[in-house]
Amino acid sequence: MVVDSGGVVTAAVVVREYDEKKDCKAVEKVENICEVGGGPSSTGKLSLYTDLLGDPICRVRHSPTYLMLVAEMVVVVGGGVDKERREIVGMIRGCVKTVTCGTKFSTKPPDVVPVYDKVGYILGLRVSPSHRRMGIGLKLVRTMEQWFVKNDAQYSYIATENDNQASINLFTQKCNYSKFRTPSILVQPVFAHRIRPNNKINVIKLNPADAESLYRRHFSTTEFFPHDIDSVLNNKLNLGTFLAVPKGSYDAVSWPGAEKFLTGRPESWAVLSVWNCKDVMRLEVRGASRVRKVFAKTTRVVDRAFPWLNLPSVPEVFGPFGFHFLYGLGGEGPKQVKYIKALCGLAHNLGKEFGCGVVATEVASCDPLKLGIPHWKSLSCAEDLWCMKKFGKIGSDECVGDWTKSPPGLSIFVDPREF
Prior knowledge:
Elements: E1 2-4, E2 7-17, H1 24-34, E3 47-51, E4 65-77, E5 84-105, E6 112-127, H2 136-150, E7 155-161, H3 165-174, E8 178-181, E9 184-189, E10 201-206, H4 208-219, H5 229-233, E11 238-246, H6 258-263, E12 269-276, E13 282-286, H7 290-305, E14 322-332, H8 336-353, E15 356-363, E16 384-390
Parallel strand pairs: 6-7, 14-15
Antiparallel strand pairs: 1-2, 2-4, 3-13, 4-5, 5-6, 7-16, 8-16, 9-15, 10-11, 11-12, 12-14
């Protein structure tokens, strides 16, 4: 409480549910200030700015259960309601989903089956720079966690940059999260030229039913595999699931369906799906010098003029650009890396058709398929950081134990709905 010439001033922070009709502009303002390169505090160095296209809940909207909260500073002067001022100073998003948290042995085929549990995922935590160090972020996180528990979530997890010390301290020191996984974010520019397909590999586009069958039969034991994979594959943002097989084995005409394919699959094959983030958000690299922009433009001009040279040109990333996200990457056999590379080439060409600036994916740091995913080191993140917390309940299957203490596997399934 502070006393000024106008009387008594009282202030309090209220956390409430986001109101899409009245809060959108205020939330966008805070988002813009908090975004790296978005506000007046920009350092002038290269930074990535995210535009959510007027939909603050776009990153959780397609999840089965989601919530967005805002922190509102309420200031009352002199005790009069007519002198009350309200300002949104922070927000947080979250969703609850059922995913694979481990495996157990079965007395019937298959020998190993997935164990599912409900998890809450926190993303998009923002606090206005002028209101930081006031406990607002902590209040938002704890309120979201209460909602997770109410919706029967056994765990909560977040993803943050491994050099974002403020975020890491908040979750690990104040909220009791543990450092859990360090997947790699791999980003490839979309060049002005198309990637030439491998003439020894056939690529088949699967219908959603076949894609679901393939994923459930072969990838359901992968960590974080979503139980509602059918909802993901049938979402309007999903551009398709693509299967790479040896030339002469299967094609669009001879394709027997997922069940028969898995019964007599070739020695090597690979699969991935493509998600259209371009219709959800736009990215923009800010802080580039004029010289850097001219150089990038020159590479694109040369690439378009001489496409047969396959020169690596820099896309138009210094203005708003869209991107596609590759998920559900998997495969088998000694040539699976070669096959996933072919699928990434197809995804690149699809991104070019859609006018995307980059194609991105996220995989476990030790995933063998990582070797076949083309990417630029300067645009990628070698170690993203996932932190996890277990709530004080017994999980859906006691044989899994505490997931937060489990060792990492070779693969991880990254849900495109919250990337």
